[in-house]
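Before we proceed, please read the two lines closing this message. Tell me what the token row says about the fold.
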Amino acid sequence: MTDLKASPAAVWRSTATLLVAGSLLAGCVARPVMTGLPPSPNSRLYAYLIAHGMARGAVMTGQIGPEGLVRLVTLDKAAQQATVNALKLQSSSANRQADQALSNLLADLPQKTPPLPRSPAEQTQKNRLP
């Protein structure tokens, strides 16, 4: 019969190997340290202002006609209210709602750019104030 007792050195070696392997696996599961600055609490406000400007530009260039104007104003107002709510509450739920409202507003905007004017005089005429 063989003796099934392991030597103390073998037990120590297997314990150390198990400890090192466990430490490596724990390091893989741990969350990485974030680098850089945290996002500004006002970042959704900036996003809303940009999306609002895009909507205004689409109306001014004729990409959105009278038939789409009511829907655009409704989406813009919803995005505005959700953004103000997210600024006040600073909660993840309010932030998600603001993100969704901004996405809806941006999705309603036309994706194509308007054709460029043929002559510089035509562009100058369009830029004049009434």
